[in-house]
Amino acid sequence: MPDDDSIEALRAAVEAIVPALDGRPGGAELRVEQHVAQAIEQAFPGFVDLIAILLDGFARDVRPGSTFVQLTLEERGEVFRLMTNGETQDLRDAMDAVLVFTYGGMYSEWTGYRRATRELRPPEVWQRLAYHGPVHGVPDYRQAAPAE
């Protein structure tokens, strides 16, 4: 399990990727960093701590003496730009993992799942996007069975 500082760095990254807007909750308010950490740790144990170290290292390039959490949203965006333009594929992969799992947590059913009651409701973000949720098939799209 990642340490608390690593989760806070991940939370700051999620906040920069999907910030709260117009009174609507962003990824940090919906605790999407928990989804990101779980997904990354499942695939690559210890990788969240490494990502936090990288975020802090690049934060010092943007504002010397600062950690990633201390940066403004704009400065965090600059860290993302530096990381995604990095010379190594591993660096770009780390940033890609944060982006993919943040969007996955924000726009999937993950934010609609009530862990305490084990109830799944359509997330609020689906309503804002006018997405009705998955369907079990559309008969008009099915091809007729070939004649024998």
Explained architecture:
With 148 residues, this protein is mainly alpha-helical. The protein has one domain (4-132). 53% of the residues lie in helices and 3% in strands. It has 6 helices and 2 strands, in the order αααααββα. It has helices spanning 4-17, 32-43, 47-62, 73-84, 89-107, 124-128, and strands at 113-114, 119-120. The protein has a two-stranded antiparallel sheet with strand order 1-2. Helix 1 (4-17) crosses helix 4 (73-84). The longest helix has 19 residues, at 89-107. The radius of gyration is 19 Å and the shape is globular.
Q: What order do the SSEs take from the amino end to the carboxyl end, as H and E?
A: HHHHHEEH
Major beta-sheet overview = 2 strands, antiparallel
Q: Estimate nothing, just give the exact number of structural domains.
A: 1
Work out the helicity level.
Answer: 40-55%
As a percent range, the share of strand residues is under 5%
Q: How many E-type strands?
A: 2
Radius of gyration: 19 Å
Number of helices: 6
Contiguous low-pLDDT stretches (5 residues minimum) are none
- Distance between the amino and carboxyl termini: 57 Å
State the main characteristics:
148 residues, 2 strands, globular
Summarize the model shown.
The chain has 148 residues and is mostly helical. Helices cover 53% and strands 3% of the residues.
What is the strand and helix layout of this fold?
Elements: H1 4-17, H2 32-43, H3 47-62, H4 73-84, H5 89-107, E1 113-114, E2 119-120, H6 124-128
Antiparallel strand pairs: 1-2
Helix pairs in contact: 1-2, 1-3, 1-4, 1-5, 2-5, 3-4
